[in-house]
């Protein structure tokens, strides 16, 4: 807490120096964004939830709480959330641990495959699971028994596929920066590898694990797509909202369920914060990067488990890519490119606009969460805490609720914000705030590992916030910023639930084109279009990675010279 | 404040962030199918060269959510080809303005609103999508009615949309209740329930799941069935004996439109001879008297006289009973 102490001391002196202004700007700008583009729309949703006829009241809540369907859906959502969280965090830890704390070749395969579910449109994941594990799927036909995928187990697999990369990203942020010297010291003192794992790795990763658990739980209970396609009759809260809003045009009741979904999230986040208070923050000293040495038992089992999970992911997505080249899955397996001749629903025109929107969301979003996390470190906890909870809340809002909230908020001539309605900027904004939680928590997890001594040293050498942010913090946190950037970019390319309500006749995005093709019954064309989107994202990510690597090399060369 | 907004609006428009709202643009919201939209809009655009027709296509349910969310400041000038049971929602009717499109008087009273807020020259039908390959593999008899689906051999082989989430779901439930009568209707749905593998949230999904062989029978839409047959899936389209449910695709003028002249011209076009000629190419169900359904539809297995397979549906009653029926369905079959 010494940075905060420093801050309090500054306050006592009453100086309003450039540094404090900068801290205020760091927190202030992203906070204004959060309030305008998250808190304000959600306040309007809350107003709808208490609107009964022409006046306000709690009647809608009473009605929802009184229905048996709601409690069944709540129970299902909580069980599904818990199961998905347990599975994703466990597997996510295995993979992150394998990537950053073990020694085996071919890690790049795991690193690139694990993000595939993030860049796959939801249709691809759903189709892939059905083509693979459905009653008439490849596995069922090969075994000659019909697997019953629809329901709890199918939904658990689908949700885990989607939550896993996010768990790896956040837990990875905690594991990548562990100090090698602590391990060397433990080695010298004769601590067994298991002891080292239990007493060094696990406590250090705890912040990341808790954050990952929070994200997995939240994205699971708010997800509608998987539940609709593979959940069968396993009704969850998100399907409940869909049924109220889309099925019965009953906005206010849908708003009630949307608001209720915030509750478990706020509660679990508060519990997590309390649990974290007991843990020391940051590392005490400077660091030496950990270079794992080969330990056969540990590394071979970690590697094979990780590769097994990757094989599953490749199977699910690969089969859809393959099916997009098949004449008539599963009845005529002759290969053909006819599904790539897409003329309806605007054809390929939406693809380029989507790239521009996604780059904007990723660049703006990464900068915003970096500034916010940077500034929050310098604020007293009493102020920082509520802001942190607000910054972690957006994942608790189902995309559909957020999209409709944006219409209610921005399609009103009462404020100048109306100018954003129907613009590409608003789609970039909704994409960023939809995934704000994941970006924010990844960067926070990374900051947790930042040695305070480093920042303090920079401070005592006279480096202001701006200088230490640029020269000390940013390079240290760069790996997390890069993964947040790619995360936001990939999700913006394919996310559907919020943007479907914000596109206009002139402005469509790739995910909406995919939905329209599928709505028109042209599922194979939708799969073909999805394949194109995934290919474009892969090429773009590859290009950006190469650029980054070249830039990194040049900077290092300059430093050496 | 106003001038500030105007200046900003102008600069934003110049920056290309938001399209400037021109008077000769028309915004149309529709739930018609992609292929027909493309054909109709091309023709309508040629007939109205001075107006740029912008079309937003969403599924029936999502379009409803969007219209209601935008109710404070509606963006559409026209609602075109949208399920009449959704259109008759009081929240939607409130946004519409009566308009008698040219030629609308040829439509029988049941296909247009008494107060002139909507009219429906076209519609779509429900259907059973039966996967013939799976039917043969499982040794099941071809179903020809709802009661055929009671057969325990169909256990876990039938899927239908949930009426609480999908308009198509309500289309079928309503048709069963109205054609068989309340009591017998509920008993029929009750008898089929044990065989139902799942109740889906999308109306076309049961047919899409049946065509790839996940289930044998998908209770769904004739459009999806015909499209699937055309693509080559081993699918048969079955209209249950005793009548299949259908839905009208209604159009209306938004009271808030700032370009009513163009909106009216467009609505007039949808009743023009040219439009009706195009309907014959795409629609199975045309309510204009004396106009036959499309040859394509006939080739896909529709009877020449479509009225022989349709259930006797009272749309006004269907709309007014909606909330009660959905609630009761949920009570009985909610999973």
Summary?
The complex is a heterodimer of chains A (561) and B (335). Chain A is mostly helical and 561 residues long.
Using brief descriptors, characterize the structure shown.
heterodimer, A: 561 residues, mainly alpha, MetI-like fold, 2 domains, two-stranded antiparallel ribbon, 4 strands, 74% helix, disordered N terminus, B: 335 residues, alpha/beta, D-Maltodextrin-Binding Protein, domain 2, 11-stranded mixed sheet, 14 helices, 19% strand
Radius of gyration of chain A: 24 Å
- State which percent range the strand residues of chain B make up: 15-25%
Q: What is the CATH class designation of the largest domain in chain A?
A: Mainly Alpha
Strand content of chain A: under 5%
Largest interface: A-B, 58 and 69 residues
Count the E strands of chain A: 4
**Order of helix and strand elements from N to C terminus of chain B:** HEHEHEHHEEHEHHEHEHEEHHEHH
- Give the total of beta strands of chain B: 11
Low-pLDDT stretches of chain B are 1-22
User: For the record, what CATH class of the largest domain in chain B applies?
Assistant: Alpha Beta
Oligomeric composition of the shown chains: heterodimer
* CATH topology heading of the largest domain in chain A: MetI-like fold
How widely separated are the two ends of chain B? 53 Å
Distance between the termini of chain A: 38 Å
Q: Enumerate how many helices of chain A there are, as a single number.
A: 24
Could you name the CATH homologous superfamily of the largest domain in chain B?
A: Periplasmic binding protein-like II
Coarse morphology of chain A: globular
